[in-house]
Structures are given as C-alpha cells and as structure tokens.
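I am writing to request your help with a piece of structural work I have in hand. Thank you for your consideration; the sequence and its tokens are set out here:
=====
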Amino acid sequence: MIAATRAPIALAQQPVAGEAAPKIVVSQTTYDFGDVFRGEGISYVFVIKNEGKADLVIEEFTPS
C-alpha cells in the first residue's frame, strides 16, 4: 500500500512581526493509493492555496 502525505514546506522568507505574511492552506494532507503494482503509474493532485497577504514561496517539497 502506498500513501502520500504532506511533507514540511520551506518558506523563502519569514515575516517580521506586524508585516504581511503568507498563509498556506491544504484541505487534504494525505491520500491512500491502495494497492499499487510494479510498473503501474499513479498520481494525485494536492491543492495548495495561499490565503495570506504575502507571496507564498514553496522552495522544496518531498513526498514521503
């Protein structure tokens, strides 16, 4: 069985107190692919939204 989970996300800049900041929102953080057979292609789209007042910069994302 294969499951994907949200890995830590690195922001390019950390806001200073009182400044506008990005706000990451991910409605679904895991997805269970069930049984996957060798050679079978799988994919799933995770929707990542920024509901903050500054740009959200995702520098690295690693599935686990």
Observations:
- Residues 1-64 form one domain.
- The longest strand covers residues 30-34.
